[in-house]
Amino acid sequence: MNNRKKLLFGGVLGDNIVLSGLMVISPVIICGDTLKNAEALIYAFSAITFLSVLISSFVPRKLPYTAKIIIYAVISSLVYIPVRLAASEFYPESIERIGIYYPLLSVNSLIVFQTEAKFYRMKKADMIISLLSCILGFDLVMLITGFLRELFAYGTINSKIVDINTVVNGLAQPFGGFIFLGLMCGVYRYIRGMVSKNNNEVRSGTDVSDK
Q1: Per-residue pLDDT reduced to its tens digit, 123-140
Q2: Which pTM was predicted?
Q3: CA distances (Å), 145 to each of 22, 36, 65, 137, in order?
Q4: Which of these, 9, 31, 36, 30, lies nearest to 20 by C-alpha position?
Q5: Residue 22: which of 106, 176, 191, 138 has the closest Cα?
Q6: Considering just the CA atoms, what is the radius of gyration of the chain in Å?
Q7: Percent of the chain residues past pLDDT 70, beyond the cut
Q8: Which residues, other chains included, contact 77 with Cβ-Cβ below 8 Å and sequence gap of 6+?
Q9: Among 11-15, 105-109, 134-138, the least confident range
Q10: Three-state SS at 20
């Protein structure tokens, strides 16, 4: 049960792919300046990554590593096509803004690297739980980033004007995204450190009481 809990929350708090692994950060920094853009990226990343990794898990493990990576890329590219077509209907303006970063999601690190290094070494059920956790970790970072950057850069939430006194236009720019992501990484590491410290104290207390 404890192992399943680690898999479930590991991708969000324990080993967040953006805040801990610093992977898939370009879309967050460059395009995560509004809530609508964030929603479009969340949709694409979640759908492409989950379907691609799940389908690719049926590729024979005995194939050479290079061949498997090429096959994973082909599968994710094919998955990208219907995802992109649907996104054009639901997020037409965001797709224009995101540009090249949208198709780049089809070759993100979870698909081309974590598959062999992590996911395919697990049992199928554990793999799905861990994969969903990693996707959720990205989605939460993307959602928080899009919401706060839009609020403080444009004074809007989901393109609706809100009553805010402080607007920092630089947050809409890539350098503002870098700064904001750096602050989020600092907060994340602090929270993770506090959680780890509390867990160690609980374990120490349990060990002492057992003795």
Answers
A1: 888 889 889 998 999 999
A2: 0.84
A3: 15, 11, 35, 12
A4: 9
A5: 138
A6: 19
A7: 89
A8: 106, 107
A9: 11-15
A10: coil
